[in-house]
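User: Can you fold this complex?
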Amino acid sequence: MDLFARYFARTSRRSGSLLNLYAWFFMRLSGIILLLLALFHLVYMHFLVPGGVTGINYATIAARWADPAWGPMWRTFDLLLLLFGLTHGANGLRQVLDDHLIDFQWRIVVKTMLLVGYLGLVGLGAAIIFSV
Amino acid sequence: MTITFKLSRQQELQLMQWLHRITGVGVFLFLAGHIVHIWLMGLGPEQFDSITAVLRQPPARLLHIFLFFSVLFHAVNGLRIILLDFVPPLARFQRASLYVSLFVFALLFIPSALLILMDAFLPSL
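Assistant: Here's the predicted assembly.
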């Protein structure tokens, strides 16, 4: 048991440090990308979209995605926003859980739920972007 | 006896770090709900628009102010962190960078909040 614990502590420390190095860099890279994507999305949808935020409904979203010239561009934009936004957010939440969820077993349970939820939300979002 | 509310340099930084976390978690929770909402387009136009109509009520739109607060604070403070991480000489100006990012945040947030309020309660303007 002691041997197992020592082995586990060593391997998890080794793999964890590398993962967190990439995560550190990814958060900064995706942060800069989201600065462009998310802020444009927010300002456009609230203040610039024709008809205003109340004008956004099924027909306007579907028309934007179906537009022969700009449709593929909007679908790509929305997919990039979905992937970068969710990945940045899920990784941030992972770091928050690592810091504040002390109980080892609960941390595994909640982080597994986070991973499943993350993959599920990517699936839901991508499915609707390319099926409407 | 006078009550003073003065934060040390360390406490100022900690306050910004806590706000960064809280706003980040808040935006993630919003994002999860937002994706599920858009996914409900799969139900068809009538169903989706009747669900969306609830979110168009002025009280619900007040929540947009929280969203703008969180996204703008997280964005400005995140940019501050990136700049300080990648440009080491800027570390000298860490304290000033907190005030600069709060100023830039206010510059972006206050007009956005006013626009949202006007849009929700004075749609004729």
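The longest helix of chain B spans residues 9-39. Helices of chain B lie at 9-39, 45-55, 58-86, 94-121.
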